[in-house]
Design a protein that fits this description.
Layout lengths: L15 E4 L10 H13 L7 H20 L5 H9 L12 E2 L7 E2 L1 E8 L2 E11 L5 E3 L15
Antiparallel strand pairs: 1-4, 2-3, 4-5, 5-6
Helix pairs in contact: 2-3
Length: about 150
């Protein structure tokens, strides 16, 4: 029998997961603050969760890509811009790796546990490479947000 939501988020407490974007509850992140403002103004009927943050991060990357592709871009212009390796990580807490030889996207994670329905990040941020090496990243963090969050 399904609980129809009555069981609540407590069933997830203690689950170990990972993330490459700031936690939805990270009020110190200007990215999360902006995303929450957008959410509250335009889509407040949806829960403010990782899916919303992911969608907004994808939107940021898409706008950045289209700006780099130029005015009235062709399909090839978009591909060239994507493969140039010049897209920054935006709100990601790890580097964004996309080029003609690397299609990994975000190149690492930070581990977290779920407590009361929210990810609580812990420990180091790790990055990985195509060859499989994994290293702790001492200077990984979300990059400063451009004015108004527009690339």
């Amino acid at each position: 029998t399904f609980s129809k939501g009555a069981a609540g988020a407590s069933l997830l407490n203690g689950i170990v997961t990972s993330g490459y974007l700031p936690a939805t509850g990270d009020t110190s992140s200007p990215w999360i603050t902006l995303f929450k403002q957008i959410h509250d103004k335009y889509i407040n009927s949806l829960p403010f969760d990782g899916n919303v943050v992911y969608g907004m991060a994808v939107g940021y990357s898409f706008v950045q890509l289209m700006k780099k592709a130029g005015r009235n871009p062709s399909r090839q212009d978009v591909i060239n811009a994507l493969q140039s390796g010049q897209l920054d990580q935006g709100p990601g807490i790890v580097p964004f790796g996309y080029s003609s030889s690397n299609h990994l996207g975000y190149q690492g994670v930070q581990m977290a546990t779920i407590q009361n329905g929210a990810a609580q990040f812990m420990g180091s941020i790790y990055t990985a490479t195509v060859d499989g090496s994994v290293t702790a990243c001492s200077d990984c963090a979300s990059k400063p947000m451009p004015a108004n969050g527009i690339p």
